[in-house]
Amino acid sequence: MKDQTILFHSTIFGPIHSRRLGVSLGVNLMPSDGKICSFDCLYCEAGYNAQGAGRAGLPSKERVAADLDAKLSRMRADGEPLDVITFSGNGEPTLHPEFAAIVDEVIRLRDIHYPDAKISVLSNSTRIFDPAVAAALRKVDNNILKLDSAVEETMRLIDRPNSPDFTVERVVEALRQFEGQAIIQTMLLRGEHDGIPVDNTTPREIDALISAYHDIRPREVMIYSIDRSTPEENLRKVPREELERVAALISAAGIPVQPF
Predict the structure, then answer these.
(1) Tens digits of per-residue pLDDT, 100-141?
(2) How far apart are CA 126 and CA 94, in angstroms?
(3) Residue 180 neighbours by CB distance under 10 Å
(4) What is the pLDDT of residue 18?
(5) Which of 1, 75, 120, 154 has the fewest Cβ atoms within 10 angstroms?
(6) What is the DSSP string of the chain?
């Protein structure tokens, strides 16, 4: 296992160039010195949850709004471009107890400073069972929700959810509430963890994903692979050509898809 690494040491970070979203300004609702997440993914660029939550605590709604307002003001004064404001960072953003209210604040500030920019949330789908969280996700332009495998044992191996109640069956059913609005994000990878093979690219896996996508009826599916260092060292990136072959299978099933 590699040393744990926290990538984002502030509430607002970037802008960075996202291969999926363009010029993106990040909003980190988790601590600046630790990680809090309801998954403990083998591939998470922020490291494993074992590093702890740190001491900084969660930023308040007021701090997020003030920091974002200041950053957007500077960017606009300097003539910097901005495509998207993205909730991401050191863990699962929807775990923040003020998540819904913060979404409203971000929308307000976006409308003032960069009205043409989109708002995206990268979520692992664990909190979509909460009506307030689900309602907030419906307000954003890009509601990007994770489904890495539609096979239960593979999902548990790759994503390692904290709750035993989180299952593929339950999450696929819950994702249906966003029909036509959600973007489903799937990380494809292979390798091993603790001597156990990891591969969500097999025909069985892809068939199960396509079946789940049909049930969910998303606006779009994003498939991608590892692009940065991962805490589990024995993972391998799926080549671009293979991503395109998988995307062709998904597209042939009538599902809009983009490989990244």
Answers:
(1) 999 999 999 999 999 999 999 999 999 999 999 999 999 999
(2) 9
(3) 8
(4) 85
(5) 1
(6) -PPP-----SSEEEEEEETTTEEEEEEE-S-TTS-B-S---TT-TT--GGG---SS-PPPHHHHHHHHHHHHHHHHHTT----EEEEESSB-GGGSTTHHHHHHHHHHHHHHH-TT-EEEEEE-STTTTSHHHHHHHHHSSEEEEE---SSHHHHHHHH--S-TT--HHHHHHHHGGGTTTEEEEEE-EEEEETTEEEES-SHHHHHHHHHHHHHH--SEEEEE---S--SSTTEEEPPHHHHHHHHHHHHHTT--EEE-
Q: Which residue has the tokens 């998540």?
A: 99
**What type of residue is 255?**
I
Contact 57, 31 (CB under 8 A): yes
Q: What is the mean pLDDT of residues 72-88?
A: 98
User: What's the token pair of residue 52?
Assistant: 């702890």
239 pLDDT band, cuts 50/70/90, is very high
Q: Return the amino acid letter for 10.
A: S
The structure tokens listed for 25 are: 């300004």
Q: Is the pLDDT of residue 1 over 50?
A: no
Beta-bridge partners for 146: 185
Cα dihedral 245, 247, 249, 250, rounded to 10, equals 170
